[in-house]
Amino acid sequence: xxxxxxxxxxxxxxxxxxxxxxxxxxxxxxxxxxxxxxxxxxxxxxxxxxxxxxxxxxxxxxxxxxxxxxxxxxxxxxxxxxxxxxxxxxxxxxxxxxxxxxxxxxxxxxxxxxxxxxxxxxxxxxxxxxxxxxxxxxxxxxxxxxxxxxxxxxxxxxxxxxxxxxxxxxxxxxxxxxxxxxxxxxxxxxxxxxxxxxxxxxxxxxxxxxxxxxxxxxxxxxxxxxxxxxxxxxxxxxxxxxxxxxxxxxxxxxxxxxxxxxxxxxxxxxxxxxxxxxxxxxxxxxxxxxxxxxxxxxxxxxxxxxxxxxxxxxxxxxxxxxxxxxxxxxxxxxxxxxxxxxxxxxxxxxxxxxxxxxxxxxxxxxxxxxxxxxxxxxxx
Amino acid sequence: xxxxxxxxxxxxxxxxxxxxxxxxxxxxxxxxxxxxxxxxxxxxxxxxxxxxxxxxxxxxxxxxxxxxxxxxxxxxxxxxxxxxxxxxxxxxxxxxxxxxxxxxxxxxxxxxxxxxxxxxxxxxxxxxxxxxxxxxxxxxxxxxxxxxxxxxxxxxxxxxxxxxxxxxxxxxxxx
Amino acid sequence: xxxxxxxxxxxxxxxxxxxxxxxxxxxxxxxxxxxxxxxxxxxxxxxxxxxxxxxxxxxxxxxxxxxxxxxxxxxxxxxxxxxxxxxxxxxxxxxxxxxxxxxxxxxxxxxxxxxxxxxxxxxxxxxxxxxxxxxxxxxxxxxxxxxxxxxxxxxxxxxxxxxxxxxxxxxxxxxxxxxxxxxxxxxxxxxxxxxxxxxxxxxxxxxxxxxxxxxxxxxxxxxxxxxxxxxxxxxxxxxxxxxxxxxxxxxxxxxxxxxxxxxxxxxxxxxxxxxxxxxxxxxxxxxxxxxxxxxxxxxxxxxxxxxxxxxxxxxxxxxxxxxxxxxxxxxxxxxxxxxxxxxxxxxxxxxxxxxxxxxxxxxxxxxxxxxxxxxxxxxxxxxxxxxxxxxxxxxxxxxxxxxxxxxxxxxxxxxxxxxxxxxxxxxxxxxxxxxxxxxxxxxxxxxx
Amino acid sequence: xxxxxxxxxxxxxxxxxxxxxxxxxxxxxxxxxxxxxxxxxxxxxxxxxxxxxxxxxxxxxxxxxxxxxxxxxxxxxxxxxxxxxxxxxxxxxxxxxxxx
Lengths: 380, 175, 448, 100
Fold this sequence. Notes:
heterotetramer; A: 380 residues; alpha+beta; Cytochrome-c3 Hydrogenase, chain B; 2 domains; three-stranded antiparallel β-sheet; 16 helices; 49% helix; C: 448 residues; mainly alpha; globular
């Protein structure tokens, strides 16, 4: 609670009994706002009347920097946006530029990219589950989730030397060949992960307090989701079966069978179930992928100096948080004229005010957790 | 010897904290002082071998009513620095009245002993160890000879609860 | 010698045992509370696939002392225009309340500070409810908007769950028929079975209520609220905060001992009056010996040399203790020591089992929201507790008037209370889910 | 053994302090507290005489007084809260309207 008593008192006469419209600040330094987000809550006693998000504390001007970097130089910046799911940011950007160059990554590179992106999706969902459960009070899931995530980060480290901001992909394919034993590691992780998911399910899914805290909290109907532009697990939990991996397949997703989990009434509990199911599906994709990684080159015929023809493209992928879009305008030089990024967290955050109304203060924390926002991506 | 030590100690604490309570400017301070006065009277009950009342006093008075008082003081957000004048001309009148009353009662107490036949027939009270177990005795008489007042006071409490809740409830409907 | 000195000597002559026990309690409880904190951190770590405090002393065993020293050295910040007197008084009240209520508890047939006052259990509950004052005054004195909110919330929680705990205890007292702590345990000895089996629902209600009363586990709302109210302890630092913290853990021990005395048969060994199970008396020394053997086994595996020595020391201590417990069993003249010693062992074992349950719940369950918490307290727990008192009373009448067997009466009434519990739970669930989902739908059709 | 006079004078003292509190203090909450004090003084007398005459009736009656004091405090504070919410004051002499 970053605010001080003075500005809180001046805004309204908040004697406890006659507490009418009370504006209270949450953040920017707050344990459960997942980064530097300030939420101004309009409270009537205990009920929340509205929430206004104040963002920009983590704005680094990534899009402006892009205009003064070549396409390859900008790639590492992309990882710093959604630092929890850096690999899928990289995939989105590389595929967008390849589309601009209308080049194509070789099949081997596409399959390895798919495996790493799915592993990153599991890792990102694990971070979400750990912090979301911690905000609602369950202390233990956090450590179980981070124990599994550690395995994934080990695989990334073996593959490209970095754990968090990996910069694993290059425009046109991959930089590093899959180290020998890559398939074995991924397979061992997937085999082990199935038993681990059961740990979380035992701890939370059937837990009546967990259901009490999440059922009917932060409800978003399908129409409201679409109107707000919410995407990813938020959209699917409200019953809309829309996943870019199936709708507009990219990388090597069209080669694998996996279901898209869909929720019923769009509350926090459904979003929890959708994300848990997504983790299981990602695990299946990885298992199918490592059975047959095609041989061949890992880098397409894309020259050292990339000078794409003047023009513009928009390419979007299904990041763990939602639809991550890249709109790149090139003016024929080696540096993009404009790179506009459509981050899922920023758009999903707009739904906060709508979901919070009529709930108690304690639910605001659960709702921010279920939005699964990362401020690096919101502020760019 | 031990009895009188205990009695004077508790009596002193009770009177002192009561006097302080009445004169304190800060309402929470007077609430705490009242709590000490009540605890001191509980001590006197103990000295009079009335253990059940000792514990009832602690649970009901200090644990219950004082919590209620402090709750209301906090809810009412009594501005602590309410520097209004505490006493007004009433103070002297009240003091005079109290002293007169005190003098009169002490006179009655002192004279009663000397007038033949009017004094209280006081034999020596039963010594401590031959007393029957207090709570059993209390319960036996509470639920036998005093059962009707017991039921009436339960109704009284019910009415008081309903009344207090209705009055203190935030009027969300007609506001 | 003047009469007053003689009087004082006479007083000391009569009461020196109680005074010594009192001093021991006041000195030992902070230490025990400190080590309960360490055990909790170690257990939490163990359940979360990590190690917990390992740095201070072998296996972190000196951590509580390090914490205590740190808290003593830490600067004591008093918020501006806070109420100095009450700011100092509040933590003292909550610590004193916990300590005095520990005075009346009988840790074994012989270890009891207040030699069996005949309002026993009521005294313990009454004084521990004074801790409530400490919390309110603490919240008020720190003069910050949020600590007042936190104080009000935790008081509301404590008051409502104390009622439920009170009723649960009443139903246990019905079975015991007396308030004296020692007599309650003797009653459980005569009836040959612990009261937990005779009144299981009362035990369950008391368990839930005592968790809420010590502000722990799923009910630790006030000070662990990650939303914006950070609880009444926010403005305290240094030693004052330590007082509150120790008060909470001492309260946990008090609540554990009340539950053990009332429901788990105080210092009786399991199946106290079943004679063919008398070999259970040899259990205490055996258990301690097993711990000693485990330490020896682990000693070899310790990385650092100091840890191996330490493990050997612990093992030796365990074996010595086992010997002390075993000696009165076999050596006839020392027979009289056996009930006191073994009684204390069983009592402490049960209390630590109870506290282990507290900790276990804390690590697994998420937190209740405040209105759910009050709803559980008022709508489900208190009515159920009242019905339970009724049913135990009715069972007692059946047993005495119509000569039913005690077990039969109690089993029947317990089933009856369970049925009422089922009714209560889903009666309110239907109503609650009805109005909360309508609240969600009622939000305006923002999105057309 | 303490003679009854001790207890009578103690309860007299408490009673006087309580009545002074009731009369002089402007803050209604402190007035209510003083009333609690007066009730307590009465309790002391009751218990003292029940101990002296060996009849437990005095203590039973003291128990009733405690119950009544609880009820009275609850209702009194309820009135104060309702009053404070409408008139923003708890001072006795500002309670001069019969119906606001």
